[in-house]
Amino acid sequence: MKVLIVNYRYFVSGGPERYMFNVTDLLESNGHSVVPFSITYDRNEPTPYARYFASPLSDESAVYFKDQKMGARSVMKSLERSFYSREVYRKLAALIEDEQPDVALVLHYLRKLSPSVLTCLHDHRVPFVVRLSDFGMVCANAHLFRDGGVCELCVTGSPLNGVRHRCVQGSLGASAVNYAATRFHRKAGYYDLISTFAVPSRFTIEKMVAGGFSRERLVHLPTFVSGEREPAAAGERPAEIVYVGRAEEIKGVHLLLDAIRILKERGEPTGYTVRIIGSGDTDYLDRLQSFVREHGLANVTFAGVLAEDEVRRALAGARCSVAPSLWYDNMPNAVLESLAEGTPVIAPNHGSFPEIVVHGETGLLVEPNDAGALADAIATLAGDPGRAAILGRQGAVFAAEHHSADAHYERLMSAFATSRRR
Question: Does 229 fall in a domain?
Fold first, then answer.
């Protein structure tokens, strides 16, 4: 079977792209061929299909909104991609006509590619599944997060709330454009073309239903971890706490550092280290590093971006990992990878986290956005290698039983079959 995968980035920028490459490997290992469609960026992985990719909104180095040169051409292209892109339709159609895919898996397409992806697939009779990695179908900024906390005003209320609170890039204009585009997409019936949504968490399914989407269109497809692992016992590991992920406010890295500050002031536990792995918003990283210097947190280091095998070794060698997200998150890869390495996870008790971190069994759940509660949990596992070892072993079993590559493959094939029947 030939599978077309659509995503607006063809390099690892975060969890969705890591999933894209992982699922590509999974499909190819099961005898399928994979054809990508994306946007041309200078950071893209090499592919013979790059000639079909859509042009970027600005230049090939401007991946993120803040990097774009907002000249007249870029503004007009951004508006087009927000509503409907004839260029994307044309280039995707050429790829489909040349390669004749059997099915398609659509990841991120809104704003950077536009729903012309959906109409092109429909017009060319390519069955497709849309995977949801965030809350973009029911939230203007896709994260159900505003002003430092969770916000669900648009889920059951008016989407105008996204304009009122400037939820897109903090801009009234960008928020108004997003609202107008969403209204246009719904009136044009573009979302009605999606017969099957693949949703990583049950929590997100409930938010989609609350937002007016039919439960029958929502298929539960949890994220998976790939590769064989033989985790070492957590009790044999050094007392290192790791964070893996993007460095941005919604991920709550500052909350983790505040918890470390609290532990330092308490004077317990002692002898542990903290490693922050990943990149992100440079201004936010600067603030984090300033906080570390200001409070003399000598046990905290910033490792930056590491290769995938280095991340796995870091997790496999840690006492525990921390996912301090302020937003609900949607089954983050880093949490599952930690469990698969036999490393217990400390996470907030909201969103999808309770589905993968079973309190007292595979890790510890804490009150969201509470640095004191996070500090207590870190002290518990940093100071008790025996308990960390037990939780780690149970976490590895949980990941193998519920988030294996084989199980994901079977569910994905079932989702494809469902999309073909509808």
Answer: no
Give CA–CA dist 143/145, Å, rounded: 5
Record the tokens describing residue 319, joined without a space: 């006492």
The residue range of the domain holding 387 is 234-402
Q: Are 386 and 409 members of one domain?
A: no
Statement to judge: residues 265 and 331 lie in one domain: yes
269 and 203 inside one domain = no
Specify the number of domains making up the chain: 2
Residue bearing tokens 């998150």: 329
The CA radius of gyration of the chain, in Å to the nearest whole number, is: 22
Same domain, 139 and 248: no
Q: Is residue 416 part of a domain?
A: yes
Q: Give the least confident one: 68-82, 89-103, 334-348.
A: 68-82
148 and 270, same domain (yes or no)? no
- Cβ 64 vs Cβ 43: under 8 Å: no
Which DSSP symbol is given to 178? H
C-alpha to C-alpha distance for 56 and 68, rounded to whole angstroms: 10
**Statement to judge: residues 125 and 261 lie in one domain:** no
Determine, yes or no, domain membership for 119: yes
Per-residue pLDDT, 231: 54
CATH code at position 13: 3.40.50.2000
| Same structural domain, 45 and 86 | yes
CA dist 17 and 21 (Å) reads 6
Mean pLDDT of the 111-133 span = 96
- Domain check: are 384 and 414 in the same one? no
User: What does the pLDDT read at residue 230?
Assistant: 65
How far is the C-alpha of 208 from the C-alpha of 136, rounded, in Å?
10
Mean pLDDT over 400-413 rounds to 95
* Global pTM value: 0.92
Which H or E element spans position 33? Answer: strand 33-37
